[in-house]
Amino acid sequence: MAGLRDSLARHFLKQAEVWGGSDLSLDAPGVYTLRRSVAAHPLRFKMPLLHTSALPLGQRRQPPASNGFRFSPVSAKARGERVRRYTAKNLKVFSAPLKNLGRLKVHNGLNRMRELPQERTNRLKWQTHRPKEPGEAILAWYGPLIEDAVIKLTLDKARGTLLVWYDPQPRHSRTGGLYLYRRMGAGEKLEWRWV
Amino acid sequence: MAASSSLGYIIVDGVEGQIRGASLVVDLRGIPMDFRYTDPIRPSRLERVLYGSALDTYLREELVLQSLLGAVEVKPQLWLCNDLDLVAPLKETGKVRAAFVAASSHAPLEAVGNIEPANEPNAILLQADAVSAPLRVAFPPASRPDEAQQAAGLLVEASKTMELLEPFTRIQKALLSLGEE
Fold first, then answer.
1. Residue A48: inside a domain, yes or no?
2. What are the CA-CA distances from residue A34 to residues A30, A31, A37, A39 (Å)?
3. What is the pLDDT of residues B122-142, one digit of tens each?
């Protein structure tokens, strides 16, 4: 009702009721600054990581600065077993594998060896007998060789050696040496000569 | 079987932790009469620990040497090796005449067959042929002078028809080719 009367008085009489008094208890106005501060919170946890083996069995504790981190029961699981007392009865004895040092197989390789040539080195520097004609230079001397037993001769140019294949029959006896000559002049041909 | 005039060459090689041996008997032209070789032996770590410093001696002198000498059918007049440590066990183990031979850098002696004492016990310098430096030849301890003289005579005789040290190279080549199979 009071509200309706006040409303009609304002509308028709242009009067408005005004109250005064000191019994009004208003809060002091608050003053706020426009400046703002930003709080920064690190995302990193301050937590020491401990290996599971460092945790005592049955007494899992949180490290003091774990910042709420909890070791999972899986990661903190420690393995072990009870210490047994062994007796002579349950000890197994193994033999050491030493048997290969007690026996040795020997093979016969004569056929393979017979296929290999003998090798002669160039011993010209020791050879005092140096037969040559004008216009010739001696490059090498290979010997001793069983001249009539030779089946094949090959000069290993890389090593400067002469490879010799012999007829293995023991009927040959003529021993000699083989000189390698270079004939000076056109072509400079190489020439082998038995002496 | 004993060959009338023959030389035996024996090597025991230790490379890359394994040891193997081979022997070659040739006539005085260098033609092979008997060739034997062993499987390589590679001692395990456990065996090295258990045998200790005796392992190498045991493998070389007892196992490889005895096995080879026992397997050779053509017995040579003289065994030659190029390892000075092998010459004494070669004589003791095989009860054979043995000598160590190697090239020297000494100036040639006056004539073929000449002998001079070398700067080590039981060793001589031997001018085996006219186309090389004298050979360094060492005999096992307690060898008699006549044994050394006979051995020197045989080496001089063989040098007329073959290169005395060449069979050592041929053995290495044979082992290499057998290892590649």
1. no
2. 13, 10, 10, 16
3. 999 999 999 999 999 999 998
Pick the CATH number of B6-179 from 3.40.50.1980, 3.30.360.10, 3.30.110.30, 3.30.2170.10: 3.30.2170.10
Q: Which residues of A touch B37 (CB under 8 A)?
A: 106-107, 109
Q: How far is A150 from chain B (nearest CA, A)?
A: 11
Contact assessment for residue A17 and residue A9, using Cβ atoms and an 8 Å cutoff: yes
* Domain-embedded: residue A160: yes
3-state secondary structure of B154: helix
Please give the radius of gyration of chain B, using alpha carbons only, rounded to the nearest integer. Answer: 17
Total domain count, chain A: 1
Residues from chain A that touch B36, judged by Cβ atoms under 8 A, are 106-109
The residue written with tokens 């007796």 in the block is A87
Q: In terms of C-beta distances under 8 Å and separation of at least 24 residues, what long-range contacts does A181-187 make, across chains too?
A: A181/A132, A181/A136, A181/A137, A181/A138, A181/A139, A182/A136, A182/A137, A182/A139, A183/A135, A183/A136, A184/A135, A184/A136, A184/A137, A185/A135
Question: Which residue segment(s) compose the domain that A123 sits in?
Answer: 117-194
Is the pLDDT at B22 greater than 90? The verdict is: yes
Task: Give me the residue spans of the domains in chain B.
Answer: 6-179
Contact between B97 and B77 (Cβ < 8 Å): yes
Residue A133 domain-assigned (yes or no): yes
Q: Is residue A94 part of a domain?
A: no
In angstroms, what separates the C-alpha of A192 from chain B's closest C-alpha? 19
Q: What 8-state DSSP symbol labels residue A134?
A: T
What ipTM, to 2 d.p.? 0.88
